[in-house]
Amino acid sequence: MGKGGIKLRLMSLRFKTALFAGASVLSVFACINAAFGYSGGTPNYVTDAAPYCARCHCSCSAVSLSNMPDTIQKIQLFPNKHYHKIETGQNEYKKMSLEDRKTLLADVKKADENASIQIIAPLDVLAGDDITVTVNVNGGAGPVVGVMLLDNDLRWQSRSIAADGWTIIGPPVIIGPDGKPQNTWISRRAEGLKKNINYAVIYGVTADIANNKWQSSSVSYTLEAPSVKGVYSMAAAFLYGTEKSSSAGYTQTIRGKLPQGGFESPSGRIMFSELVKVTVK
């Protein structure tokens, strides 16, 4: 090989090394940003959303996974995906003492026992008429929880309610845990864009696990019924965290509280409401 060939090869190796190093740095920053972002909600994803994106969240019920094999259902349910890792000291939990793990497990179980979601919708409506659908949620460790209005209750098959012929009219109306309307979430929508989205983040959520006190909030959507008569299904999803409700469940960072299990921990939950069938006449 001539000197020119050797020089080109060295340049290629240097370029690949620099590219790999740069990608590694970007990957680290991406993970850091994602870790702080998801543990405090998704402040930059102000758009329609579906629950298939909640990779680290455990499912609260096998119903939402009923179209999947039994093995996948078992893996995704929170006793197996989350509790078991705490009990056996896997991943980040291996850094905790046995007593702290026992405390954390007891606390996240309380968080799950006190979380709930309810969807309220009329069962009959005329084609083209407007209706209000309200989603009530309770619990979650905070500081935020999320709500989605969907066309069915299957975790990896559901879509925004707007995909099934309904039109979302105006922004979701969010009532925070203090009983007051919130504009924090929808104000993050870019100027000039319509605010009629199916996803809402509720701010200011706290949990007092010592006194077993959990907060309630609601999101209301105004919908225009489909023009085609028929029976339509709808459901809501509730996204919440568990570990930060526990004194043993988080580490304090300059950016706030980070769940003890870290970003890869399945400490979050996705809970579906009952499936509602609405007849459009």
Can you describe this structure in just a few lines?
The chain has 281 residues and is of the alpha+beta class. The chain has four helices and 16 strands.
Can you describe what's shown?
The structure is a single chain. This protein is an alpha+beta fold. The chain has one domain: Immunoglobulin-like. It has four helices and 16 strands. Strands 1, 3, 5, 8, 12, 15 and 16 form a seven-stranded mixed beta sheet that branches. Strands 2-4-11-6-7 form a five-stranded antiparallel beta sheet, with no helix packed on it. The termini are far apart. About 10% of the residues have low confidence.
Give the topology, please:
Layout: H1 3-39, E1 58-59, H2 70-76, H3 78-88, H4 98-113, E2 116-120, E3 124-125, E4 130-138, E5 144-150, E6 167-175, E7 181-182, E8 199-203, E9 207-208, E10 213-214, E11 216-224, E12 230-241, E13 250-253, E14 256-259, E15 268-272, E16 276-280
Parallel strand pairs: 1-15, 3-16
Antiparallel strand pairs: 2-4, 4-11, 5-8, 5-12, 6-7, 6-11, 9-10, 12-15, 12-16, 13-14
